[in-house]
Amino acid sequence: MTTFVLVHGAWHGAWAWDEVVPLLNAAGARTLTPDLGGDQGLHDHAEAVVAALDDVQDELVLVGHSYAGLVVREAADARPGTVGHIVLIDGWAGADGASLFSLAPDGFAETVGAAAEARGDGRIPPPPPAMFGITDPGDAERLAPRLVPQPLRTFAEPTRLTGAVDKIPGTAICCSGSPYPFDRFAESIGYRTLALDGPHNVMMTDPEPLARMLLEVVQEQEARSLE
Prior knowledge:
The protein is an alpha/beta fold and 227 residues long. It is built from 10 helices and 8 strands.
């Protein structure tokens, strides 16, 4: 049995996968959705994912959305013998020492840093749902109150990679409505890229095509192992 460990991005919670989990489960897969909550940093979040990985005995696919691209790669680097495949969905990713701030365009760090300073607690207030591609008024109304402030440390801390993660096969699913060059991030670390029509929060707007693509990644991996 395949287990998908689905890791949500910034400002979100494990609930971000609520539409995808039943589809994967119906296809016979197991799913885990660790929550990256609390006033913590990127390394703390990676350790939380490592703890989830240590509970899995099946074939494991580690999936990270957006900010969690950095998190899952650090976690996989710590458990290279456990993770069979990494999938990034519009994921931030880079080499050892990369951070979200180092990958982001000029002015991004200053803007979110100022927003966190205005709050006075070291956390970045959540952007409006439209920034995640959620434009339907009803969907936006449901999403907005669920978003939570994100610790500034998570964007500033550089990833710690030994190079072990680079031996794990990786795939990047890049959404058509992406605001950042996630395809270039993926290519820089040697991942193949797959295009998916949808906004950044595709797991909420188009869960069925996303679930199909995740399952196809597993099928392709199994086929390669038989060659």
